Structure formats: C-alpha cells, structure tokens
Amino acid sequence: MKICVFGPSYPLRGGIAHYTSLFCNALRERSHDVKLITFKRLYPRFLFPGKTEKDTSGTPIRSDAEPVIDSMNPLTWLAAGKRMRAFRPDLVVIQWWHPMFAPQYATVARFRPRGSRLVFLCHNVIPHESAGPMQRLARMALRHGDHFIVHSEEDRRNLIGLVPGADVTRSRHPTYEVFNTGVWDRDACRRELGLDGNVILFFGLVRRYKGLIHLIQAMPKVLSRIDATLLIVGEFYDKKEPYLEEIRKLGVSDRALIVDEYVPNEEVGRYFTAADVAALPYVSATQSGIVQIAFGFNKPVIATSVGGLPDVIEHGETGLLTPPEDPDALADAIIDFFAESRGEQFSRNIAARQDEFSWGRMVDVVEGLGTEG
C-alpha cells in the first residue's frame, strides 16, 4: 500500500516526532511504500517556550523524510500538498496534536488524490488549555477526515463533539521500548546520580497541567512513612521558581533532585533505570507518551485518574491511580506502592502485556483502514 504520512520528525524533537518516525519505520517493515512529509519549522521562536525545537540527541530516532512544511509559510503548505498528490497514495495519515496546525493540514487535505482515504491520527484532539477559537480551528482541518484514530476514550468523545458522526477507531498508544537499549545498570545509574533508597521519577516537560506541584506537596507525608527521593527530570516550560519555593517551604530539598533539561534519547534510560516508579500527577490528560516510555522499561506508574490514563494503567496490576489535585491521596498511593513491595509484580504484569502496545498492532489498525471501502 502507498501511504503518505504528515507529521513532525527528526531533526525536530519531542514525543510526536519520535512517534512519527517509529510509526513510519513500522509501516516500512511491513513493506508499505511510505512517503513521510515533515516540517522544516514547527513554531516561530516567540511561541516556543523551550531552548530549541531541534533534537540534539547523539542517537536520534530517524525515518526517511522530506522536510517541506514551514508552519509560517503557506507556500510550503501548497508544496507539501503537491508532493502528496504526485505520490498518489492509497492512504494519507496526518499526525494531529494541536489546532495551530489546522490551516496547514486543511490546505494539504485539499490536494488529496481522488480515491485515497484521509486518516487523522490524533494524539490530542484539542489542547489541554482549550477554548472556543481552538475548537473552531480544529474543525477546519478535521472535517476533511474520512477516519480517525485516537488513543483514549476522552479523545474519542472530544472528537465526536467536534465532528459528529466521525468514524473513529480507538487503538493503544504503542510503547517506546526504543529507549530501553539494555545497556543501563541500576546500581551504576544510581551512583552517578547520587541516589539511594526508594526513587520516584517525574519525567518530561514541566507544564502546569502535569501537576508536579501536587507531587511535591505529597512528599512530606511520603517521607513521614518511607525514605524516598523525588527525581524531577525535564525542561521547565513553567516558571521554575514556584516549584523550588514549594520544595524549600515544605522542607524536602534534600529529598528532591532536579535535572532541568530536555533529555537526549541516549540518556532517557539512565533515569528510568534508576527509578522504582514513574509518577504522573496530571491535572488533565488525554494520553501520555511518558507512560509508554515507562512501560518500555517495564516500570510501574502511579498516576491520576484523568483523561486516558485509566485506559492504559490497570489499577493494582500495572500501577496505581489516584484522584487529581489530591496530594494526600497521591502520598498514600506512593506509600502503599513501596510498603507493599508492589514493584516486582507490577513489572511482571507490564512485561506480560507488551504485545498489546506493539507498533505491529498500530500497523494492523492502519492496514485495516486502507482496505476499507
């Protein structure tokens, strides 16, 4: 099958770029003819809160791609559409994660050859901080879709709200086992980071909706019962000082280690190997690539029961779920995890479920859409 994929990819950084590359590589492994049309630039500098949108990893996740689209240059949107039309795909798959890219994708969609099917693969149907204008932008592009793939029930509901009657398939978000290279030793990682005892990992870009402040506020109660260190790893997109002030105010500075940087691919394993459990105290979520990185290391997860997280994390089997914005309940879950020694059994359960989260399963879904109609 000839498949044209649109989405960010290397040399751009981030979870969606990783996903796009791995997705295209999995399609090619099934002998599909894949054209990946990617972005030369995603965001103008004044809209990007990080240090750079380029992936500086020494071991980038690559896929053969054509960097065509500049999000600020409509001429490149037309050029991308023309390249797609010349390829004459059977199936067009657009990675969708933010309405900011609705004008670009709506333009591209108009070049779709007659007879091809257009699928939106939705990571977030609408942003976490969405408003009316964002929803109207989203409809501008999504109305062109023949079919939609989502990774959570919340996104399915959001999509139906925007595109009534949409043909939607819900599929598991594949696991990022690519980061688990098998080269990391737990004791060595801990020595290098200066860690011992129980280690709780918060990983990923720090933004308000991810609820890190509530995890920090849970630490005094956790430390009243067990010895533990909170390992915070990720570039701060929020102001850092309020988090540091909360850590100082609560008197947990000596049990919190902060690595304020975007982690290159080859270093991801260091932190997940050193940790006992990953914590996702999100205030809102549709799904999370961080869960899938953790599962790639067979690492249990303690998370809030928001959005699509309960669709992925089985409470009492692969992790624990707590109410959002409730530091007391979050602390109780962390204490229970360590006091009841749940880590080993949870890790075995995750390992036994790896096939459910495989890229092969994702390709099966796409192949089924390509043969419809």
How would you portray this structure in words?
With 373 residues, this protein is α/β, with parallel strands linked by helices. 39% of the residues lie in helices and 18% in strands. It is built from 14 helices and 13 strands. It has helices at residues 15-29, 74-87, 102-109, 132-142, 153-162, 186-193, 212-225, 241-249, 265-274, 289-296, 309-312, 327-339, 343-352, 359-370; strands at 2-6, 33-41, 66-70, 91-96, 117-122, 147-150, 168-170, 198-203, 228-233, 256-259, 277-280, 301-304, 319-322. A 7-stranded parallel β-sheet has the order 3-2-1-4-5-6-7, sandwiched between helices. It has a 6-stranded parallel β-sheet with strand order 10-9-8-11-12-13, sandwiched between helices. Helix 1 links the parallel strand 1 and strand 2 (33-41). The radius of gyration is 21 Å and the shape is globular.
In short:
With 373 residues, the protein is α/β, with parallel strands linked by helices.
DSSP strand tally: 13
The CATH topology annotation of the largest domain reads as Rossmann fold
Termini separation: 14 Å
Give the strand content: 15-25%
Please tally the helical runs, counting DSSP H or I stretches of 4 or more residues. Answer: 14
- CATH C-level category of the largest domain: Alpha Beta
Poorly predicted residue ranges: none
Task: Tell me, rounded to a whole number, the average pLDDT.
Answer: 93
Gyration radius from CA atoms, angstroms:
21 Å
Write the layout of secondary structure elements.
Elements: E1 2-6, H1 15-29, E2 33-41, E3 66-70, H2 74-87, E4 91-96, H3 102-109, E5 117-122, H4 132-142, E6 147-150, H5 153-162, E7 168-170, H6 186-193, E8 198-203, H7 212-225, E9 228-233, H8 241-249, E10 256-259, H9 265-274, E11 277-280, H10 289-296, E12 301-304, H11 309-312, E13 319-322, H12 327-339, H13 343-352, H14 359-370
Parallel strand pairs: 1-2, 1-4, 2-3, 4-5, 5-6, 6-7, 8-9, 8-11, 9-10, 11-12, 12-13
Helix pairs in contact: 1-14, 2-3, 3-4, 6-9, 7-12
